[in-house]
Design a protein that fits this description.
The chain is an all-alpha fold and 165 residues long. The chain has 4 helices and no strands.
């Protein structure tokens, strides 16, 4: 693959990660304000971007693998660094290093935003469960109360049965 094509592909990956990060940041605010409709809408907006990201990543893996014919088919997916070592000249490496760091930074920011959203949603669910448990009436034992007095029977029965009686 020509270096310029790979550069365009990496820039597309960075762009999609930035778009996903923007949505993740908006989703964080929606979660904080408790706007479930906005969270659902933002989640729907994410779906096409995630699909696009998967297609770009598959394309990157295929094109890097094509430039690295010496790799065994059982090897894990070739990495950007594997390709860079073979395809990029020494004078272009600083530019590629910058591009690589930009991609890695955008991936890290997105992961952090998604981790924050996951934690906020987990805490929201815990809060809802706590609230529901506090508002839900506590069940009364059905068989062991005296319906006339509304109290539990006296402690006359110890739970043991005297079999001699």
């Amino acid at each position: 693959m020509p270096v310029s094509s790979m550069k365009a592909l990496i820039n597309q990956l960075i762009s999609v990660h930035r778009e996903l990060y923007t949505i993740a940041a908006a989703k964080t605010e929606a979660i904080k304000t408790g706007d479930g409709k906005a969270v659902a809408r933002l989640s729907k907006e994410e779906m096409p971007l995630v699909s696009r990201l998967q297609r770009l990543e598959e394309r990157r893996i295929a094109e890097v693998a094509a430039d690295l014919p010496d790799r065994a088919p059982t090897d894990p997916a070739p990495t950007f660094s594997d390709w860079e070592a073979v395809a990029v000249s020494e004078r272009e490496r600083p530019e590629w290093k910058k591009l690589y760091l930009e991609l890695a930074g955008s991936v890290l920011r997105l992961k952090q935003a998604n981790a924050l959203n996951q934690e906020l949603l987990r805490q929201s669910i815990q809060w809802v469960r706590l609230s529901m448990n506090l508002l839900r009436p506590q069940p009364q034992p059905g068989n062991y109360t005296d319906p006339r007095s509304g109290q539990n029977p006296g402690q006359g029965f110890s739970g043991r049965i005297d079999s001699r009686a």
